């Protein structure tokens, strides 16, 4: 197995950055078990298969799924793993089989690794790739580090267009295609329809932004946090409901003439929010689950068995990333509106504190620069 390395161009924002003292190590955010994480010195990754690429991370972020990992909700992620599955950077090294990229290329990293050849990939279900899927920051080391190894690089990276806003593209690694595919497409959002998005965090807001591509008549946002509901209004929500009083279902039903919503999108990942979606979906409607669930949820078939509803689940496949990239480039969607905070990698623990306490900090997405 051979690899190619050439001197990489300096990132515009990093021209004065000092080189690493030890080229064999890097800084990385490491999961140490439920509730535990640490910024550590870690061996830099190397090429292990011909289809690999090593990417020098420029910008990454924290996902709500990372918080689920830290809660112990994702047993496939074992202690010692570098977290993170989003980011942009520059190719540092490529394996002998990589043909679409070369060292020095600026790339967007997909949260989903796809071989492009297995049965699931051929069906467009890249999330279930037999040698990939969601493995970054889960089953293999992820992007919250100075360098990351990307398997199946040719089909798991995207070239960054000239002049593109790198921070906007970080939102295309995961959050924007997740909200769109798992919420909007699975939820069958259509012109003139009524949509409720339960959860106005970053993923719910991503679903809100992309739902508007289909011109629904109403988009109702539900959350416990008045600040996030206010943000949702500025993003295009037609109505909002604060669910603190436990009467959100009544409020949504009143807004829809007691009919309910055509699409109920669950964007939190707890039993209460999934049950709320069941309570507000209209006959013939769809419940589209986005949230990562770490506990069992009751399914009320005693009430829904006759209602002609559909319930969908999905892990993002990123089949829409290329399309969304064009949509962002044409200014039809501005994902930078989701970004509220910036940190350097050496302050990533502070970034987690900010992101994990969003009700107090009013944080949405946090950009971390290496």
Instruction: Give the overall shape.
Output: globular
* Proportion in helices: 25-40%
Q: SSE string, helix = H, strand = E?
A: EEEEHEEHEHEHHEHEHEHEHEHEHEHHE
Radius of gyration using CA atoms only: 21 Å
How does this structure look, described?
It contains 13 helices and 16 strands. It has 370 residues and is α/β, with parallel strands linked by helices. The chain has 2 domains: 3-174 and 318-369, Medium-chain alcohol dehydrogenases, catalytic domain (Quinone Oxidoreductase, Chain A, domain 1); 176-312, NAD(P)-binding Rossmann-like Domain (Rossmann fold). The strands form 3 sheets. Strands 1, 4, 5, 6, 7, 8, 15 and 16 form an 8-stranded mixed sheet that branches. A 6-stranded parallel sheet has the order 11-10-9-12-13-14, with helices on both faces. The chain has a two-stranded antiparallel sheet with strand order 2-3. Helix 8 runs parallel beside helix 9 (271-280). The protein is globular, with a radius of gyration of 21 Å.
Task: Give me some keywords for this one.
alpha/beta, globular, 13 helices, single chain, disordered N terminus, 370 residues, Rossmann fold, Quinone Oxidoreductase, Chain A, domain 1, six-stranded parallel sheet
Give the topology, please.
Elements: E1 3-4, E2 25-31, E3 37-43, E4 53-61, H1 64-71, E5 87-95, E6 106-109, H2 119-122, E7 147-150, H3 153-156, E8 157-159, H4 166-170, H5 175-185, E9 194-198, H6 202-211, E10 218-223, H7 226-235, E11 239-242, H8 248-255, E12 261-266, H9 271-280, E13 281-289, H10 301-304, E14 310-312, H11 321-329, E15 339-344, H12 348-356, H13 358-361, E16 365-369
Parallel strand pairs: 9-10, 9-12, 10-11, 12-13, 13-14, 15-16
Antiparallel strand pairs: 1-5, 2-3, 4-5, 4-7, 4-16, 5-6, 6-8
Helix pairs in contact: 5-6, 8-9
């Amino acid at each position: 197995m051979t690899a190619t390395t050439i001197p990489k161009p300096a990132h515009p924002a990093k021209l004065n950055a000092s080189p690493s003292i030890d080229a064999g190590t890097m800084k990385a955010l490491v999961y140490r078990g439920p509730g535990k994480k640490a910024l550590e010195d870690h061996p830099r990754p190397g090429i292990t298969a011909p289809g690999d690429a090593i990417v020098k991370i420029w910008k990454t972020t924290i996902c709500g799924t990372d918080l689920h990992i830290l809660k112990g909700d994702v047993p496939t992620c074992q202690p010692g793993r570098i977290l993170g599955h989003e980011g942009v950077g520059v190719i540092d090294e490529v394996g002998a089989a990589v043909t679409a990229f070369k060292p020095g290329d600026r790339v967007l990293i997909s949260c989903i690794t796809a071989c492009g050849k297995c049965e699931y990939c051929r069906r467009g279900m890249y999330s279930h790739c037999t040698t990939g899927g969601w493995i970054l920051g889960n089953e293999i080391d992820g992007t919250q580090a100075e360098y990351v190894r990307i398997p199946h690089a040719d089909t798991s990276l995207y070239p960054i267009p000239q002049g593109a806003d790198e921070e906007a593209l970080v939102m295309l690694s995961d959050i924007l295609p997740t909200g769109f595919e798992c919420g909007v497409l699975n939820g069958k959002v259509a012109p003139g329809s009524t949509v409720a998005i339960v959860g106005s965090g970053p993923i719910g807001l991503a679903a809100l932004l992309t739902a508007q591509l289909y011109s629904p008549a109403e988009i109702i946002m539900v959350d416990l946090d008045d600040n996030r509901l206010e943000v949702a209004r500025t993003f295009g929500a037609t109505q909002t409901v604060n669910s603190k009083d436990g009467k959100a279902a009544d409020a949504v039903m009143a807004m829809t003439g007691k009919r309910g919503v055509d699409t109920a999108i669950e964007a939190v990942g707890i039993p209460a929010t999934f049950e709320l979606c069941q309570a507000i979906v209209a006959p013939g409607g769809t419940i589209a689950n986005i949230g990562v669930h770490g506990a069992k949820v009751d399914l009320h078939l005693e009430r829904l068995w006759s209602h002609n509803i559909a319930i969908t689940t999905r892990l993002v496949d990123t089949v829409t990333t290329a399309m969304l990239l064009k949509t962002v480039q044409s200014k039809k969607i501005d994902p930078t509106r989701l970004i509220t905070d910036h940190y350097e990698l050496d302050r990533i623990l502070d970034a987690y504190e900010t992101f994990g306490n969003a009700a107090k900090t009013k944080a949405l997405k946090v950009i971390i620069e290496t």
